[in-house]
Amino acid sequence: MRFTVGGNATRASIAAVETKLRTLAAELGAKYDARLSIDGEDADHLRWFDGGTRKQPARPVFVRTPDVERDVREAMRPHITGERINKLVALNAGAQAWRAAWVRRLSTNGGGIPWSPLSPAYAAWKHRRGLDPRMGVARGNMLAAVRSGLVVIRRIA
Q: Which run of H or E residues covers position 22?
């Protein structure tokens, strides 16, 4: 036996929420920017790590990938119901999902994004000093800064 209550209306409501969700998720990056506020050395180190230097290849932490886009949409979904949307709360939830992706990438040597390995000399240097062998996590300061930095949402368009 099958029961359907408001089948067409329910499908239309779900489709409308999905449309709002995709639109709002697309705005995070087009109309709104999520910034991670980190002070001092950790911010400089993260900038060099992400963009590379003459001596170090770029190891992209902030790149947008389909799996992160999906995680952002799923984090925003609970804040989009029917006709009412709390945009700031939804955008903040999406930005926190981005932060989780950044932490995952730093914690797992790229988190699915191929990063150039450490040079053998630097890997040996880290090992001799008892430092964390993961890229970008020698002493854990930069990872801790990404975990605890303030995520700021701002309108850019």
A: helix 7-30
**Rounded Cα–Cα distance for residues 128 and 145 (Å):** 25
Stated pTM of the model? 0.78
What is the residue range of 112's domain?
9-155
- What is the C-alpha separation between 25 and 34, in angstroms, rounded? 12
Domain count for the chain: 1
Give me the amino acid identity at 142.
Answer: M
CB 74, CB 97: distance < 8 Å:
yes
Asked if residue 152 lies in contact with residue 29, where contact means CB atoms within 8 angstroms, the answer is no
**Which pLDDT tens digits describe the chain residue by residue (157 residues)?**
444 455 566 666 667 767 777 777 777 778 888 888 888 888 898 999 899 888 889 999 988 899 988 898 889 888 877 667 778 888 889 889 989 999 999 999 998 888 988 889 889 999 999 999 998 888 889 999 999 988 888 888 7
